[in-house]
């Protein structure tokens, strides 16, 4: 049986942790499953650390840059994003340049962890 206890309103515990609030996560698990849960806990901790340390950079993005970033992370090309947003390809290239500068990323691989913000 798994239970989750949190002091965060609306059980939005990930956002609460990123914002510095505390949450207690309590699990009852079989001993043979302990290694799996340890891996999951470590992965969650890394994600929360990323969210916390990159939140201010992400918040520097404009609403439109966030839209473009979301489309980039979904694998859309500049042309497809331009069509979806009814702008030119040049505009999307400019947004990409600004996103990369604000997030201090040089490659697509460096952008991938930002999926956590969506």
Question: How would you describe the overall organization of this protein?
Answer:
By secondary structure, the chain is mostly helical. It has two domains: 1-55, no CATH class; 60-118, Arc Repressor Mutant, subunit A, CATH 1.10.10. The chain is 59% helix and 0% strand. It has six helices and no strands. The two termini are 29 Å apart. The model has no long low-confidence stretch (mean pLDDT 84).
Question: What descriptive keywords fit this protein?
Answer:
118 residues; DNA-binding; WH-like_DNA-bd_sf; mainly alpha; 6 helices; 2 domains; Arc Repressor Mutant, subunit A; Helix-turn-helix transcriptional regulator
In short:
Keywords: DNA-binding, Transcription, Transcription regulation. 59% of the residues lie in helices and 0% in strands.
What is the CATH homology-level superfamily of the largest domain?
Winged helix-like DNA-binding domain superfamily/Winged helix DNA-binding domain
- Helical content stands at 55-70%
* CATH 2nd-level architecture of the largest domain: Orthogonal Bundle
Q: Provide the number of structural domains.
A: 2
Q: Gyration radius, to the nearest Å?
A: 18 Å
Overall pLDDT, averaged? Answer: 84
What distance lies between the first and last C-alpha atoms, to the nearest angstrom? 29 Å
pLDDT under 50 segments (min length 5)?
none
Order of helices and strands: HHHHHH
- Biggest sheet layout: none
CATH topology of the largest domain: Arc Repressor Mutant, subunit A
In one word, what is the shape?
elongated
Oligomeric status = single chain
| Percent of sequence in beta strands | under 5%
């Amino acid at each position: 049986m798994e239970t989750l206890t949190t002091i965060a309103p609306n059980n939005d515990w990930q956002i609460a942790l990123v914002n510095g609030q505390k949450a207690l996560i309590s699990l009852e698990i079989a001993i043979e499953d302990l290694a799996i849960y340890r891996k999951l806990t470590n992965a969650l901790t890394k994600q929360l650390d990323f969210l916390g340390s990159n939140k201010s950079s992400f918040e520097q993005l404009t609403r439109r840059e966030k839209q473009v970033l979301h489309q980039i992370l979904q694998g859309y090309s500049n042309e497809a994003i331009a069509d979806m947003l009814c702008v030119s390809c040049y505009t999307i290239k400019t947004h990409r340049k600004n996103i990369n500068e604000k997030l201090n990323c040089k490659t697509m691989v460096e952008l991938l962890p930002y999926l956590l913000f969506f």
